Amino acid sequence: MRVICHACGEANELVSKPGRRDDCARCGQELRCCLQCRLFDEATDCREPQADVPREKDRANFCEFFEPGEVAPRGPSQEEKAKAAFDALFKKK
């Protein structure tokens, strides 16, 4: 099974669905997380009404409804953008 990492876009070849201990070969991001699931929806968190949605969407979880989906790599989060802007503002010249 081919799983594209949501963080860096690396194609990871796995024997079966990602387990809790499966990480991206390039960046080390956990592959069995909400952001990798085909049911994940940023507006509602999850399209599966019976799912117990974890707080951290980018961390490995035990969701029984997890199905890996083809995802595009995500850009930096709002927090990462704000930190970069802050660092750039106070960067020594």
What percentage of amino acids are in beta strands? 5-15%
> In total, how many beta strands?
4
Q: Domains counted in the coordinates: how many?
A: 1
Order of strands, widest sheet: 1-2
Radius of gyration: 15 Å
What does the largest sheet look like? Answer: 2 strands, antiparallel
Terminal residue distance: 48 Å
Report mean pLDDT, rounded to a whole number. 86
Order of helices and strands: EEEEH
The total count of helices amounts to 1
Percent of residues in helices: 10-25%
Question: Which structural class do you get from the secondary structure elements?
Answer: little secondary structure
Poorly predicted runs are: none
Label the overall shape: globular
Topology:
Layout: E1 2-4, E2 11-13, E3 40-41, E4 45-46, H1 78-89
Antiparallel strand pairs: 1-2, 3-4
